[in-house]
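Lecture notes, part 5. Sequence design as translation. It can be helpful to think of inverse folding as translation between two languages: the language of shapes and the language of residues. The source text, in structure tokens, appears below.
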């Protein structure tokens, strides 16, 4: 893998350093300056501990690099949401005449202007994090950290200066990086590490993968006016509710995104200065696989991520890594605790942890309080809400219908659902065919406890956040139905749900 080769070239084998020095001892050293690492370090410092944060970004295969803050701030949630918003504005411009706005002349999107503004905002956040660390008296060390022994890490900066740092406790919060397929010409493609700072417009783009990252990127690229295709090996949004996944891909197809299904890439070849020929294989039922090829300007790989644990020197210390994912294995009682008592892990790098920024932040704060405040509160990794920012947004918390049936049995699961039309989609003629709500419930006597919430529609994240609290408190369908809705909103359709999937009755909402 390309990423593995890059990391190996950085830390493997015999190294030559410009200089070597030692530094002072810390109570806590956090390796990784992403959301979780920063939260943990600041909390520990606020509790009076001497703390250092080691953070180093190995440039991507295309040379992309960034500042303090981790994936979410630099190449994830923040730039993604801004690009998504830019695409939504494009849809609003097209529908504006229905609301009386007279928009004359050609409306063009300026990729360079968007990238410039997004980059400026991200850099302001990078600077803000550095200021916060300074204000909390946390030492920020811009260097790659790896273990020398169980209480010592070597920190190597970009100038190859090396120093050793000792600490009583270490927290691993290094997150992960995109995975490139092991195919010919893979180095011609880019990833989510690169798309948000791409200096020139991507042009005709092929997104390879069907993860939420793939669909989000394809969605905003289509919305910004670029000819975009998505290559799907099997299913979209694996691990999410598949009713919702199907509705999302159908909506994206109606919106102009092309889906190349049952296909895997075989090779990429440079064709001219600005074009890449992609050859792929299509599995066609019982027939022999066939090969196809097309030319694109940009190929974006979004086939998954791998955690950055390979070069940290963890296994010789006794820290257990998952044999397939490379993630750090924690204990059953305290998931963040590794097999080495004074080494912990939080965030995406931890096996079993949802790969979400708020999860890492919460886990980091709780860990610091357990270490230095005597707290016993553990992180609860269940009922964690999230939102997929595809053109039709998808918010969810709890179990998918498939997982609920697998866990509780089909006869014990009841699904209440509805197709609805947001008021703002009516006279604007926006596509509401995929606006859908589903409550997954488990039968408990005469009541139905809600164990899964799924919402497709505008502002899905804002809607889901509120309902997530009620699911964590064990709300039942009956209690939810007794709530009074706010009219006219999309969220009120949740408390109005009254048709079960089992009944076979058309769940399309009509009227107010």
């Amino acid at each position: 893998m390309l990423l593995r080769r890059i990391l190996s070239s950085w830390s493997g084998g015999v190294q030559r350093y410009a200089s070597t020095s030692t530094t002072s001892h810390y109570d806590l050293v956090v390796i990784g300056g992403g959301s979780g690492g920063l939260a943990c370090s600041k909390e520990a410092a606020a509790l009076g501990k001497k703390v250092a944060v080691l953070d180093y970004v190995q440039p991507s295969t295309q040379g992309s690099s960034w500042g303090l803050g981790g994936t979410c701030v630099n190449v994830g949630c923040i730039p993604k949401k801004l690009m998504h918003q830019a695409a939504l504005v494009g849809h609003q411009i097209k529908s504006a005449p229905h609301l009386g706005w007279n928009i004359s002349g050609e409306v063009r999107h300026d990729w360079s202007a968007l990238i410039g503004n997004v980059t400026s905002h991200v850099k302001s956040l990078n600077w803000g994090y550095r200021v916060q660390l300074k204000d909390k008296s946390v030492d920020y060390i811009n260097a790659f950290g790896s273990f020398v022994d169980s209480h010592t890490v070597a920190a190597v900066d970009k100038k190859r200066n090396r120093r050793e740092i000792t600490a009583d406790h270490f927290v691993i919060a290094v997150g992960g990086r995109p995975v490139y397929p092991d195919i010919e010409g893979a180095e011609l493609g880019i990833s989510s590490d690169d798309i948000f700072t791409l200096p020139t417009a991507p042009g005709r783009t092929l997104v390879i993968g069907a993860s939420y990252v793939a669909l989000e990127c394809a969605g905003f690229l289509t919305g910004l006016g670029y000819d975009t295709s998505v290559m799907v090996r099997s299913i979209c949004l694996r691990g999410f509710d598949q009713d919702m996944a199907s509705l999302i891909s159908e909506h994206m197809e109606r919106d102009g995104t092309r889906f190349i299904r049952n296909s895997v890439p075989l090779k990429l070849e440079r064709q001219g200065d600005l074009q890449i020929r992609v050859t792929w294989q299509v599995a066609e039922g019982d027939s022999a696989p066939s090969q196809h090829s097309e030319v694109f300007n940009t190929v974006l790989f979004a086939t998954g991520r791998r955690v950055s644990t390979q070069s940290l020197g963890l296994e010789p210390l006794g820290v257990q890594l998952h044999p397939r994912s490379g993630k750090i294995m924690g204990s059953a009682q305290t998931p963040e605790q590794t097999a080495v008592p004074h080494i912990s892990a939080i965030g995406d790098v931890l096996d079993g942890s949802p790969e979400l920024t708020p999860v890492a932040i919460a886990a980091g704060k709780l860990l610091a309080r357990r270490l230095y405040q005597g707290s016993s509160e553990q992180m609860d990794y269940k009922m964690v809400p999230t939102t997929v920012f595809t053109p039709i947004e998808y918010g969810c918390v709890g179990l998918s219908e498939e997982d609920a049936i697998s866990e509780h049995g089909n006869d014990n699961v009841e699904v209440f659902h509805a197709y609805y039309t947001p008021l703002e989609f009516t006279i604007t003629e926006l596509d509401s065919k995929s606006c859908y709500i589903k409550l997954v419930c488990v039968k408990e006597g005469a009541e139905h406890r809600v164990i899964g919430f799924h919402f497709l529609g505008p502002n899905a994240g804002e809607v889901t956040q509120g309902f997530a609290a009620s699911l964590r408190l064990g709300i039942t369908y009956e209690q939810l139905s007794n709530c009074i809705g706010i009219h006219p909103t999309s969220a009120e359709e949740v408390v109005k749900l009254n048709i079960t999937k089992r009944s076979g009755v058309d769940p399309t909402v009509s009227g107010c």
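The translated text above is only one of many valid answers, since several sequences can fold into similar shapes. Confidence is low (pLDDT under 50) at residues 1-14.
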